[in-house]
Amino acid sequence: MSSYKTMLGECICGDSKELIKSLENSSVDLFITSPPYPLINPKEYGNKSQEEYNDWLLEFIGLMIPKLTPTGSIVIDFGTSYLKNKPSYNIYSFELLVRMVKELNLNLCQPFYWYNPSRLPYPSMYVCRRKIRAKDNVNNLWWLSPNENPKADTTKVLKKYSKSMKKYFKKKSPADTTFQKNKGALPSNLLEMANADNKSQYLQACRKLGIKYHPARFPTALPEFFVKFLTDENDFIVDIFGGSNTTGYVCETLGRRWKTFEMSREYVAASAFRFIRDINNAQLCYDTIMNSNIAVDISQF
Fold first, then answer.
1. How many whole angstroms separate alpha carbon 76 and alpha carbon 257?
2. pTM for the full model?
3. What is the mean pLDDT of residues 228-255?
């Protein structure tokens, strides 16, 4: 089983369902993940069909619940899709949300929405060709927990004040107590984050070596928001569909312990490029992980 470890975490190649079972109960402060989307035409990284998707994913979530700490959370990113040969929205993520709440007794703490302005027009048939649908640039993110009041702190994810608010604070009189100036503005549940990073060390190394990079990657800002919002330093975070291991990289930079699980040996080995000190060591790092059956300490690279 290929894997590698860093100072704070470990990326493991294997069946997530079995790897979740290996986690200690009440140990995980945050599960955050982006499962393979239920597409009409499955991708090479292993999408389930639209018909079987919810039953498949619900089983994973059921295994995750006992692993959470008493104040732990689950955040899941759901991509949008349309029904086959119809300009009708697939409501799978809403159906799954109802089942998670009703069948697994999870609380929907708050829905979030990821607006990706750099996303290509989708669905192209109805947006670009027939022009009967607007561009679909928003993913659903469900924040859930068995606890009605899980750990959370919005002061860790404050935004910069807008120009109008800066002018307001500059001109407001001492008697005006409508708004108090803090270190920043409170965030909303609409997260605008472009997924257009083409210069990361991960992508540079993949291109340099001619290695296929993961086609569905988180922007680092997305897991970073929830890791800051829902966890403290040295907390434990797990991503059960690791992909290119953006989650692990974010946790490492923020001082959180982490584990990520990924079925593809190639994706696991390539994701180590995010952590190596010298990109010139990428090939040696990749080959070492691919040919090892123990966790490779990548600090040597």
1. 19
2. 0.91
3. 97
